[in-house]
Amino acid sequence: MGRVGFAAAAACAVAACAVAAALVGRRVRARRRWWRAVEVVGEFEEGCATPLGRLRQVVDALVVEMHAGLASDGGSKLKMLLTFIDTLPDGSEEGIYYALDLGGTNFRVLRVQLGGKGSMILSHKVESQPLPEELKSGTSEILFDYIASTLKNFVEREEDDSQQKTDERRALGFTFSFPVRQTSVSSGFLIKWTKGFSIEDAVGKDIARGLEEAMTTKGLNMRVAALVNDTVGTLALGHYYDQDTVAAVIIGTGTNACYIERTDAIIKCQGLLTNSGGMVVNMEWGNFWSSHLPRTSYDIALDEESPNRNDQGFEKMISGMYLGEVVRRVLQRMAQESDLFGDATQNLSVPFSLSTPIMAAMHEDDSPDLERVRQIMEQNFQMPHVPLKTRRLIIRVCDIVTRRAARLAAAGIVGILKKIGRDGSGRSRSKSQRTSVAIEGGLYTGYSNFRDYLNEAVVEILGEEVARNVILRVSEDGSGIGAALLAAAHSLDR
Ligand code: ADP
Ligand code: MG
Question: Could you confirm whether domain 81-241+477-489 is CATH 3.40.50.2300?
Answer without folding.
Answer: no
